[in-house]
Design goal:
With 254 residues, the chain is an alpha/beta fold. It is built from nine helices and eleven strands. The strands form three sheets. It has a seven-stranded mixed sheet, with helices on both faces. A hairpin with a 2-residue loop joins strand 1 and strand 2. Helix 3 packs parallel to helix 4 and helix 6 packs parallel to helix 7.
């Protein structure tokens, strides 16, 4: 922990170090004692994280803010809202807090379906909570499994069930936010979605340039939407985290 703080100080200065220390103290020591005040909204999605009374006061002071985050997963959310159609079958690899899965489910309406693969059990529960809070649980299925391999799966209860890329179900839209497994999935999958949305993770072995080449080799035209989250621009630049939209339908990708 101490070595990590020293590295932050050396690479990004005293201001960022102070922000991280303040964030850590509030989140670990103070925030758990605060009374709840509803649920947080990430993007346009209610997530299963309680809002605390102190969050509004601390929001602008925290390095990793706690509070409503309108730009959370902005690249992925923007791509899904633009490309998912009513009645689409959507497959999502990497559920996180459920924001993109719910976004896709809302876009399909009750006529379509979303299947979300999430490697960690806490993530599975988070996606299901978000689905329930936003009223889309009837057409959003969450599968506790790792697709391809667990390169950078968050959490402590990672599933031992491995879904091979060639076992992914047929779909109209595929979203990959799977912490480094993107390139393996794109190499080995046999499905042919109309649109593929990918968050790249260069620091985990799935560089943006490599992902683009794989998509183009499959016959897709590729649009680069830029850095994944403007609110974490430095990290996105340092770690090569961008959002690519690949389409075989020029109308879908614009």
């Amino acid at each position: 922990m101490f070595d990590k703080l020293i590295n932050v100080y050396r690479s990004r200065g005293i201001s960022e170090l102070g922000g991280r220390v303040l964030s850590y103290c509030y989140k670990r020591a103070i925030r758990p004692l605060m009374p709840s005040d509803g649920y947080l909204v990430f993007g346009d999605v209610l997530v299963g994280l309680p809002r605390k009374v102190g969050d509004r006061v601390m929001f602008s002071r925290l390095y990793f803010p706690i509070g409503d985050q309108p730009n959370y997963e902005l690249g992925l959310v923007t791509a899904l809202k633009k490309n998912v159609r009513q009645s689409d079958r959507v497959v999502i690899v990497g559920g996180g807090l459920g924001v993109t899965a719910v976004t896709a489910a809302l876009a399909t309406t009750h006529k379509g379906s979303v299947t979300c693969f999430e490697g960690d059990l806490a993530g599975v529960r988070a996606v299901r909570r978000a689905a329930s809070l936003n009223g889309v649980e009837a057409h959003l299925t969450v599968v506790h499994a790792v697709v391809s391999e667990a390169i950078g799966v968050y959490g402590s209860e990672v599933s031992r069930t491995i879904v091979r890329p060639d076992e992914l179900p047929a779909c109209d839209v595929l979203e990959l936010d799977c912490e480094g497994a993107e390139t393996n999935i794109l190499r080995e999958m046999t499905i042919d979605p109309r649109v593929i949305v990918v968050e790249t993770h260069g620091f985990l072995g799935s560089a943006t340039a490599d992902v683009r080449r794989l998509l183009e080799s499959r016959g897709y035209s590729v649009d680069d939407l830029g850095w994944s989250e403007p609110s974490r621009l430095d990290d996105c630049i340092d770690w090569d985290i961008r959002v690519l939209v690949a389409s075989k339908d020029s109308v879908a990708s614009g």
